[in-house]
Amino acid sequence: MNRTQLFTSADLTREEVDFLLEEAESLRGKNTEDLKGKVVATLFLEPSTRTRLSFETAAHRLGASVITIADPKTSSVSKGETLADTIRVVEKYADIIVMRHPTPGSAEEAVKYTKKPFLNAGDGPNQHPTQSLLDTYTIKREAGGIDGKTIAFVGDLKYGRTVHSLTYILCLYKPAKVIYISPPELKVPEKYTQMLKDKGIEFEETADLDSKMPEIDVLYMTRIQQERFESEAEYLKMKGSYVMTSATVKLGKKSLRILHPLPRVDEITPDVDDMEQSACFRQVENGVYMRMALLKNLSKAYYK
Ligand code: NCD
Questions:
Q1: For the segment 121-158, what is each residue's pLDDT rounded down to a tens digit?
Q2: Is there a single domain that holds both residue 120 and residue 142?
Q3: Domain that holds residue 255
């Protein structure tokens, strides 16, 4: 793989995704020295638990050291430092940069200021490419892959960046059908359905979850993205739109697999957790191996 930076899922190729899936599988459960002597910077200018900790776990398991900003309030960003200057400074310390930022397009902006390996860990409601790769890895392990599968997204499809990034990857394969299930106010942006149209992939948009359950192979549940709403009142109108309970799961196939990027609020009840269909916490573990694959190979391409 020749890639050194990843700021969107839009320019990933099928060859790259297939390669990364194999790499993640081969790094499963391993500790290596692929990044021995390298410093990975994790800049998280927006809250995170999984993404930051799984990147840091991945870096440690590859033998790297980690420096971090876990809270923008503790960095010079809170003094008004520009993104350009933050990146110009951090690239003098670190060999690889991982960044999460609240502004859409900030990752694409950041790579103007560094040639070093760079990974977008989420830019506002826009993209979350490393999550979509770990989701793809989970779909492969849990359901055998995307081809021929009916894949549904449920919840906040407007602001949910993981939905946007995964849709790009679905377009590299041949799913039987993609179903977007959301309240009308939180529909997936038209750009994504247009992309499916252009690729000749069948899709459907609906607000009704229960009637769709029997046809779904992989169901991707999402959180209503409270922090993206203009007001608390608007969020409260949407809160609790969809709740997956064990009774809902039983409407589906036995082979159904449920994914969720987490954190969940109230959209999957705890009684679902012990069901075989729930893959959410296996998905968390897969994230470490996919991020190991990314850190290793972006670094390898740059530091040859
Ligand atoms: C997601 C995110 O940050 O976009 N979480 C994650 O990275 N695991 C989903 C979310 O916050 O709802």
A1: 999 999 999 999 999 999 999 999 999 999 999 999 99
A2: no
A3: 129-283
